[in-house]
């Protein structure tokens, strides 16, 4: 018989690892020709026009209604980012393309390569505690390892290459945002 040594009780630590509905997106995974074709098509001018006028309103609704399984972007990995308005404090919802870097999630403030940052970016800079895919995160703008993260983002959604080129024409650098998991509100 083996003797067990009693251990002292430890204080509970907040759980931040997830087993949620936020689908894990590996940027190193090779995408098939159908996925790549759809990504290319979604970056064309007509699709960009639809995305700017209709898609940004439709996507969060579709994602919430289907539990994150279906959005206007079909196969491209998207989830809903909830921020608080920088001035109003009102909840704002935007569907964003994402991928994982370890336990963290990376999102790109591409805004189709337009000259201005998207409003959600200003909101999360002002209030970095956000919800993404129904899970709580703390947002921070990425300053280091940007080149390798952009290479990963380009594998997930190749049109980011064009978006960066378009944004650079107006002097804008597209920021990358790291979402680090934080404990659920009320978790001990």
Draw up the topology in text.
Layout: H1 33-42, H2 45-65, E1 78-84, E2 91-101, E3 104-108, H3 119-126, E4 129-132, E5 135-141, H4 146-156, H5 160-169, E6 176-181
Antiparallel strand pairs: 1-2, 1-4, 2-3, 3-6, 4-5, 5-6
Walk me through this protein's architecture.
The chain has a single domain (33-181), classed as Pnp Oxidase, Chain A, CATH 2.30.110. Strands 1-2-3-6-5-4 form a six-stranded antiparallel beta barrel. The protein has five helices and six strands, in the order H-H-E-E-E-H-E-E-H-H-E. It is 32% helix and 21% strand. The two termini are 37 Å apart. It is of the alpha+beta class and 188 residues long. The model is unreliable at 1-19 (pLDDT under 50). The chain has helices spanning 33-42, 45-65, 119-126, 146-156, 160-169, and strands at 78-84, 91-101, 104-108, 129-132, 135-141, 176-181.
């Amino acid at each position: 018989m083996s003797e067990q040594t009693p251990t002292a009780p430890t204080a509970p630590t907040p759980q931040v690892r997830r087993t949620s509905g936020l689908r894990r997106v590996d940027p190193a995974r090779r995408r098939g020709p159908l996925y790549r074709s759809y990504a290319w098509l979604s970056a064309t001018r007509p699709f960009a026009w639809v995305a700017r006028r209709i898609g940004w309103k439709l996507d969060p609704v579709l994602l919430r209604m289907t539990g994150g399984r279906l959005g206007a972007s079909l196969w491209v990995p998207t989830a809903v980012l909830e921020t608080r308005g920088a001035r109003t404090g009102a909840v704002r919802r935007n569907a964003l393309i994402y991928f994982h870097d370890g336990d963290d999630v990376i999102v790109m403030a591409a805004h189709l390569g337009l000259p201005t940052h998207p409003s959600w970016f200003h909101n999360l800079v002002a209030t970095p505690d956000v919800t993404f895919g129904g899970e709580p995160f703390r947002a921070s703008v990425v300053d280091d390892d940007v080149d390798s993260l952009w290479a990963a983002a380009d594998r997930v959604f190749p049109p980011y290459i064009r978006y960066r080129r378009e944004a650079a024409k107006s002097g804008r650098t597209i920021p990358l945002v790291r979402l680090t998991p934080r404990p659920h509100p009320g978790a001990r």
